[in-house]
Amino acid sequence: MATKEMQVVKGLDIEKYMGRWYEIASFPSRFQPKSGVDTRATYTLNPDGTVHVLNETWTDGKRGYIEGTAYKADSNSDEAKLKVKFYVPPFLPIIPITGDYWVLYVDADYQYAVVGQPSRN
What we know:
3% helix; Lipocalin_Blc-like_dom; mainly beta; 1 helix
């Protein structure tokens, strides 16, 4: 059975999207510890239009984090389909890991959002 492609936000105001976002719920990610709490992401606009990404979570009272860069998957599209690139391990940026970051919904005041990826995983 074919699955319809997810609808994404069009015309995302990237400047309004910048700031700190707190994770309320998520599906487990292989990159996050299962016992992580207080997970958050901080987005900062870079001069070149890309976004600096800082993902943080706390496990047993210790902060874990990874930094990366997000950018539009298609610079000619108004859809909020982004790519995020992280380097693993973060202290030795050798191996880039790139993933999809699709903004599926954001409220009018940019207070909450739903984010996904085309694989739906």
